[in-house]
Amino acid sequence: MSSIPKIVILGAGYGGILTAQRLQKELNYNEADVTLVNRHDYHYITTHLHMPAAGTDSIEHTRVSISKLIDEFKIDLVKSSVQEIRLHDKKVILEDGTLSYDYLIIGLGGEPETFGIPGMAEYAMSIRSINSVRLIRAHIEYQFAMYKNEQRPQERINFIVGGAGFSGIEFVAELADRIPKLCKEYDVDPALVNIYNIEAASSALPGFAPELVDYAVEVLQKKGVTFKFGVAIKECMPNGVILSTGEEIKSATIVWTGGVRGNRLVESAGFETMRGRVKVDEYLRAPGYENIFIIGDNSLIFNGDKPYPPTAQMAMQQGVSCAQNIVASIRGKELRKFEFHHKGTVASLGKGEGIAVVGDKKYTGFKAAQLKKLVDLRYLFIIGGIPLVLKKGRFI
Ligand SMILES: Cc1cc2nc3c(=O)[nH]c(=O)nc-3n(C[C@H](O)[C@H](O)[C@H](O)COP(=O)(O)OP(=O)(O)OC[C@H]3O[C@@H](n4cnc5c(N)ncnc54)[C@H](O)[C@@H]3O)c2cc1C
Fold it and tell me: Are 87 and 289 in contact (CB under 8 A)?
């Protein structure tokens, strides 16, 4: 290792930003060179993407310039796309250069998992990045405009969301809130519009208590969502889907939220993965590599015999822990085992509605919706203090 260790962080998502901020706080002057690589010069708040996707909030509430979050005297920000991770010679190949590292943190986030469903990768859109949600929003508006300029084809105003997990439910709720406004703007009768949420499992929102799931489903049905549970999408086409029941639903808009996997770059680096996620050791290191830490949606941690679901709160806590362990390792101190502290779960169901679990307390409706806002504000405070809360926060 060179005299000043080189630390390279890949990805400035929830995990990467928290790692960078903690390193910049804990490292002394000239103790290490830290480089943060991200495809964009902004950090986006993934848990918020469903809103600009449906058009119920602006993109600007969902992203923050990375230079506002880190001290660029302490951390080099490289805006580039990672192409390859070369473990044998400790290098990362970027689209426009190469970086070598002594310590590597991989926090490149997830990718949609389409489970090989024919046509899904080609014809469905996904809620994944600022660019992908801009596309969804523009596409939905375009369908309304086209509907009025063609022979009123029903497929233009049928909307299909595949998957009733967190992101599927939160998106469908926002979409249901947006549709009446679009109908008004484009002179379309709201009774003609259909929103379908299709889920292969027998119910929505795995992990929530059945009474909260029932509450969520009822709220969304009242907002006009048609659920199809226990029904899989067998094939996705440019103008609709074929279901496992044989039914065909025509739609020019299919948004797939039915699966997430880790970033493919992690697999192609040669790590052993389960759907792109690496089972890390108790210090968040890749098996066999004391200098490589894997966090967020790229990592796999078990809670008993089941893996924890990939969440923002997991990625954040891992980011802090891996930064502390890297500092400890540089200083020759003992590393600390990572322990996940579950702080609760909140799902938004659109304007003024939600469900939440905090400790052993369950919340529904307005209270849960306010909790969601508090969680969002807390995150902004953690990464950017009061100025960021005031600039990007959505208040009660
Ligand atoms: C719509 C939606 C709603 C969600 N809601 C919730 C919720 O309410 N609560 C919750 O806890 N979790 C939620 N999640 C899950 C949560 O967002 C993720 O678990 C979390 O973002 C993972 O953090 P991460 O740091 O691993 O990756 P990310 O936050 O995804 O960040 C990865 C970063 O890496 C960058 N990157 C990717 N590839 C490259 C490359 N090749 N080169 C350079 N940079 C690259 C990306 O641009 C991004 O900045 C939601 C997810 C979605 C999609």
Answer: yes
